Automatic annotation (TrEMBL):
<dbReference type="InterPro" id="IPR051691">
    <property type="entry name" value="Metab_Enz_Cyan_OpOx_G3PDH"/>
</dbReference>
<dbReference type="InterPro" id="IPR036188">
    <property type="entry name" value="FAD/NAD-bd_sf"/>
</dbReference>
<dbReference type="InterPro" id="IPR017224">
    <property type="entry name" value="Opine_Oxase_asu/HCN_bsu"/>
</dbReference>
<feature type="domain" description="BFD-like [2Fe-2S]-binding">
    <location>
        <begin position="400"/>
        <end position="446"/>
    </location>
</feature>
<protein>
    <submittedName>
        <fullName>FAD-dependent oxidoreductase</fullName>
    </submittedName>
</protein>
<dbReference type="InterPro" id="IPR041854">
    <property type="entry name" value="BFD-like_2Fe2S-bd_dom_sf"/>
</dbReference>
<dbReference type="Pfam" id="PF07992">
    <property type="entry name" value="Pyr_redox_2"/>
</dbReference>
<dbReference type="Pfam" id="PF04324">
    <property type="entry name" value="Fer2_BFD"/>
</dbReference>
<keyword id="KW-0560">Oxidoreductase</keyword>
<dbReference type="InterPro" id="IPR023753">
    <property type="entry name" value="FAD/NAD-binding_dom"/>
</dbReference>
<dbReference type="InterPro" id="IPR007419">
    <property type="entry name" value="BFD-like_2Fe2S-bd_dom"/>
</dbReference>
<feature type="domain" description="FAD/NAD(P)-binding">
    <location>
        <begin position="15"/>
        <end position="333"/>
    </location>
</feature>
Length: 489
């Protein structure tokens, strides 16, 4: 149920379980925990459930076939039906900016409400356990012209299409690295855009290095084949081992230069070719969104593509007792893995709180599926790990931090002249990463530049505020005791 201030369902604090994130992982976790007898609150910044994968148009847009752009739509409608029939309190439009462990061992989630977090009063929700299912965000590697209007994130283009039914342009080049590019290109083409090329920096043959993980996951190969067939039908050309190394245009995108890359992602001289387009959808993989957990001190692990995910035990618990995580927070692996982990975590929470033996057969099956899908996720992550040569795409006047307008030249100067050796020092010397997005866009690039060709330290995902919060929301914390009846937008 979606709670309103008068809902009795909003008056159960402390809940047994608070789930942050209503994507595949959070939904599966919330409905499973509720079906096992726990009182559950499910918070999400978005107005709708479904997360990134199952984004869908608002009812006001009157889409006749919201499932048209989705694989696995029935998995989502099944979770949505179970949520509607459950006692879960669903707090939509709740942006959780901090989670805190109280002296009595319970957790408080602090949230601001409304579409952009500025509506109504801030909310405080208390629970005995927490499940973080906050997904991932896109990794961007800069190149000359990437800040021109008409350049959008690859996942962002998919989100525009799935939730707003709009295309970023009529002729859209899709570029970067990762399996998401194929999904995005086939959606754009199916929706009527002309896609002159999918430009993938990695080589697909790298998948062949782990034949066992491939053989164990035939459904993944089938999904890739179905995207491939859709691209063939729409005559979309896939260019592996290539990158968009420059965007051209005065007021917006008019063309891109696509260049062949060597195995380290270094441009091969003389191979640049111009392709006319009016939009570029670009992304270089996904980064787990884990600030809420790392700010609490949760341990992390380095993933094969150089990003950080949460270190989890066999039942999805983080290094902080009572705090579980599922889905992309532990490493990017897709919606089926996210659902599996969400259910596994919920069963572990229920066993702990109810003091009952868990259903061992079900748990064993979930673990096996999780391990099989995780093995594939690790192969995928390694195959698309950025090579160090991407830095050769940059010119000194390329903006790296677009919020603070810090160029590659200034960061290089901070490294070579002023002795910066890590992203944090580069940030203090140049302001790169201090703007609105708090380094989510430029963090990877700044770490790579600071490492001077060595192995970069992944940007530390420690931020006291996981989302932007107004001072008035902080001031309200002093005005009231913890609110036993969370208000919703
Ligand atoms: C932009 C983007 C587009 C994607 N598109 C596709 C696609 O088309 N196809 C595909 O196979 N995979 C796609 N993915 C990958 C996809 O995210 C996963 O495969 C799958 O959705 C993972 O499920 P999840 O539950 O872990 O995370 P998500 O589905 O991402 O769900 C996370 C949820 O947490 C919420 N959240 C995050 N932080 C907070 C906070 N602080 N407070 C409150 N709520 C919060 C978000 O609003 C979101 O609803 C995309 C990823 C991104 C980042």
């Amino acid at each position: 149920m979606t709670a309103s201030p008068s809902d009795p369902g909003a008056r159960q604090e402390p809940y047994d379980l608070a789930v942050v994130g209503a994507g595949s992982a959070g939904l599966a976790g919330a409905v499973t925990a509720s079906e096992l007898g726990l009182s559950v609150v499910l918070l999400d910044a978005s107005a709708q459930t479904g997360g990134q994968f199952h984004r869908h148009p608002a009812p006001a847009l009157g889409a006749r076939r919201p499932e048209a752009l989705h694989h696995d739509w029935s998995a989502f409608t099944d979770l949505r039906r179970r949520l509607a029939g459950s006692t879960v309190t669903h707090l939509a439009g709740h942006h959780v900016w901090s989670t805190v462990r109280e002296g009595d061992g319970t957790w408080t989630a602090h949230a601001v409400t409304g579409a952009d977090g500025t509506a109504g009063r801030p909310a405080r929700i208390r629970a005995r356990t927490l499940l973080l299912a906050t997904g991932a965000y896109e990794r961007q590697l800069p190149f000359p012209g990437w800040t021109l209007p008409g350049v959008v994130g690859a996942g962002g283009a998919q989100a525009m299409l799935k939730s707003g039914l709009v295309l970023p342009g009529r002729r859209v080049v899709v570029a970067g690295s990762g399996p998401l590019l194929l999904a995005v290109a086939s959606s754009l083409a199916a929706a009527g855009a002309r896609v002159p090329a999918v430009v993938e920096a990695a080589g697909y043959l790298r998948y062949a290095r782990a034949p066992l993980a491939l053989l164990a996951n035939p459904a993944k190969a089938a999904e890739a084949l179905s995207h491939g067939a859709a691209l063939l039908r729409h005559r979309v050309r896939v260019r592996p081992r290539s990158a968009v190394t420059e965007v051209h245009g005065t007021d917006r995108v008019e063309a891109v230069t696509v260049t062949r890359l060597d195995a380290d992602w270094r441009p091969v001289p003389g191979t640049g070719r111009r392709i006319a387009c009016d939009a570029l959808a670009v992304g270089h993989g996904l980064v787990p969104q884990i600030e809420l957990a790392t700010t609490l001190g949760c341990a992390t692990r380095r993933l094969p593509d150089g990003t950080l995910g949460l270190a989890l035990d066999d039942l999805q618990e983080t290094s902080e007792r009572g705090l579980w995580a599922a889905g992309e927070t532990g490493g990017v692996g897709g919606a089926e893995l996210a659902r599996t982990e969400g259910e596994l975590a919920a069963r572990a929470v229920a066993a702990r709180l109810l003091g009952r033996r868990a259903d061992e057969d079900r748990i064993a099956g979930l673990r096996r599926r999780r391990d099989r899908l995780r093995a594939f996720a690790d192969v995928m992550s390694a195959a698309h790990a950025p090579g160090p040569g991407w830095q050769d795409w940059l010119t000194d006047d390329t903006d790296v931090c677009r919020c603070e307008e810090v160029t590659a030249g200034r960061i290089r100067e901070a490294v070579t002249e002023l002795g910066a050796r890590d992203a944090r020092t580069a940030k203090l010397l140049t302001r790169a990463g201090m703007g609105w997005c708090q380094g989510r866009m430029c963090g990877t690039a700044v770490s790579c530049l600071a490492a001077r060709g060595g192995v970069p330290e992944p940007p530390a995902e420690r931020r006291p505020f996981a989302v932007p919060v107004r001072l008035s929301a902080l001031a309200a914390l002093d005005e009231e005791p913890a609110d036993p009846h969370p208000r919703t937008s």
